[in-house]
Amino acid sequence: MKSESGYFKKNAAIAGLLFFCGLIAGLLSIAPPVESADYLVEVSKNEMQVLSGAFFQFLMIPAYIGSAIALYPVLKMYSEPLALGFAGSRIMAGVFHMIGVIILPLFIVLSREFLKAGSPDNSNFQTLGELMRAGRDLTNHVAMILPLGMGSLLYSFILLRARLVPVWLCVWGFVAALLTVAASLCFLFALFPVISVQYMIMNIPMGLQELVLALWLIVRGFSKTAIDSLAENKSWKNCSCCIVQ
Predict the structure, then answer these.
(1) What angle do CA 121, 122, 125 make, to 5 degrees?
(2) Would you kindly state where each structural domain of the chain is located, as residue ranges?
(3) Which positions ≥6 away from 200 have C-beta within 8 Å?
(4) How far apart are CA 12 and CA 150, in angstroms?
(5) Which residues fall within 8 angstroms of residue 24, CB to CB, at 6 or more apart?
(6) pTM of the model
(7) What is the pLDDT along the chain (245 residues), one digit of tens a residue?
(8) DSSP structure string for 71-87
(9) CA 88, 90, 96, 97: dihedral to nearest 10 degrees?
(10) Angle of CA points 97, 24, 87, to nearest 5°
(11) 34 burial level (CB within 10 Å; 0-12, 13-18, 19+)
């Protein structure tokens, strides 16, 4: 039992570290030139900043998927279907992250061609650029955020029921995930844009909760009592199955 607790403590620390790295990479993945009003010009002037954003967005993929892999062994002890749902949601989010990574360098190509053409007004460049920006926002803030939010609901539920971390941290995660999903749906139905106070306020709780959860997992890990209880229940169930057979 002692070695099993040590194994899960290591998994908790790895998951926490990956959560933390994902948050830092997410902050560094912001590409202001793409959000600029004059983005067709600004992107070409700040190519390295755009490529840097793409690089850090790419780093978020192994961080998100890696944290799911690290958490899966302990989460499945409580509910394998829910644990699989959580892992699947992270993989799905990773796929959309990759699409977001690919879109950013395309803005550089578009900006270069726009400047080569003499920065024409009311041209197809503006139409294409707006379509690309809309596509990027829908990819990053709807297609990617919705599975992430649903996955956060699943693992918060498991952590709460299994008492693997404090109840207040699980409830915070559950409410924050609901707010994040709601913010994405509000953006999808054009209630407010991504660059808005409303969207930022609704997403701050999730970012802060993941930061606190990451630090908790790194420093404290999972509750030893909860791990031992889950392990004993799992052993008892396996034993019961053998007896029935």
Answers:
(1) 90
(2) 2-144+207-244
(3) none
(4) 21
(5) none
(6) 0.87
(7) 455 567 788 999 999 999 999 999 999 999 999 999 899 999 999 999 999 999 999 999 999 999 999 999 989 988 999 999 999 999 999 999 999 999 999 999 999 999 999 988 878 999 999 999 999 999 999 999 999 999 999 999 999 998 999 999 999 999 999 999 999 999 999 999 998 999 999 999 999 999 999 999 999 999 888 887 776 766 544 443 332 23
(8) HHHHHTTT-HHHHHHHH
(9) -160
(10) 45
(11) buried
Q: Which residue type, as a one-letter code, is found at position 127?
A: T
Instruction: Give per-residue burial for 142-173: e unless 16+ CB within 10 Å, then b.
Output: bbbbbbbbbbbbbbbbbbbebbbbbeebbebb
- AA identity, residue 151: G
Q: Evaluate whether 17 touches 218 at the Cβ level (below 8 Å).
A: yes
